[in-house]
Amino acid sequence: MMMSLLLSCGDDQGEIEDRIAQLEQQGQELKNQGDQLAKEGDQLQSDIDNAQDQINQLTDQLDATKLLSFEFLSSDNPLQVVEDTRAEILDDNNVECRVLNIMSSKTLIPRFQFTGKSLTIDGKNVESGKTAVDFSKPVTLTIKGDQKSVSYTVYVHSYTGLPLLWIETAGRADIIKTNWYYNADLKLVEGVRTRAAGDVIEADIRIKGLPPLEYYISKVHTSGQMAKNDYVLNFNERVSLLDEAADTDWELSANRDDKTLIRTQIGLFMGTISQLNFTPKFHFVDLMLNGRYYGNYRLGERLEVSSSRINIGFDGYLLKIDESTTGIYMSYNTLEQPVSIMAPSLMTGDTQYVYIRQFMNAAEEALFSAAFTTANMGWQKYMDIDSFVDWYLINEIAKNYDAVFQHNCYM
Fold this sequence. Notes:
By secondary structure, the chain is of the alpha+beta class. It folds into three domains: 66-158, Immunoglobulin-like (Sandwich); 164-301, no CATH class; 318-410, no CATH class. The chain is built from four helices and 24 strands. It has helices spanning 2-62, 263-272, 351-367, 385-397; strands at 66-72, 85-86, 88-89, 94-99, 107-108, 110-115, 118-121, 124-125, 133-134, 139-144, 149-158, 164-169, 182-189, 200-209, 215-216, 225-226, 231-239, 247-253, 282-289, 292-301, 318-321, 329-330, 339-343, 409-410. It has a seven-stranded mixed beta barrel. The longest helix is centred in the first third of the chain and has 61 residues, at 2-62. The model has no long low-confidence stretch (mean pLDDT 88).
């Protein structure tokens, strides 16, 4: 009986073990099916994501807003553009266009291609090849689509991109005298990259040539033609040019002796960061004089006594050392060139004239005396060391041969 019971329990245990094995196998099969379903689900989600990306791309293409091209054709602008000019579309939504000739006006008809629903410039609808636009200042070009819009800043430069100065003398008279002012009309058009972008100054002025005036004989014109000379511009009222302090007198420097066109400007820049009380500020411009292009000039502050320039106050003096004299002047033992009194206006024998002469004589004697290094009796009593050292270094670096007290040395 006991043996029968044990055999019966053994059969039941075997069945249980078989059942467990079957359940484990079924569980594994279910897990495999689950993994397969998960993989199929991931693939389905990937297919959905790809489909959405394609939908988004198609939507973007349908709503694309992009400037494809921008140009000025000479056929559209016969009086302004001498050859077709294509603009460069930059990545940062800027459009740069340099028209390779000088224009009296920047009102031009553009041609363009774009993707989108509409294109406006400064908020106004513009039709390619038909609508004239004023590009004297940077303009905003906006393209709109169904869902979005994009904007570009358009810069149109004329020739070099520098401010352009137009001067027309009355009757286009040649400037042949150095002691005579000629009536003239002036227009200064600032470049779109200058601080006062696109500003236009128009005024009646007087213009005078600075000596020596030069002329040349060309193959076309057998009579003497005006060369690239220096000029003084006189306004009827105080005006600010190129963002400098307002005044009535300005100078046009031809820069003839500066082959690089930057040497003088670098020297002046060093003056602005030095201990000197005043350094004139000049800016590069292109000059059109009586309808003829005279090239690159420097337009800037003329050396004169005023509150915004050389401010000598009520008790100061402005002197010039130069081989050519101006007004009242005096000579000294060691200086090879005479010293002119530029300001104030004096007569020989005036108290101030006597003071200047005695001061300069005393400074000269102290400089060449045995005690020239002492503070109380030497040169330090008469000269400001900081400004003199800066002045000396600037002229030495610039290799200014005039600075050996030969020409245009101001104190």
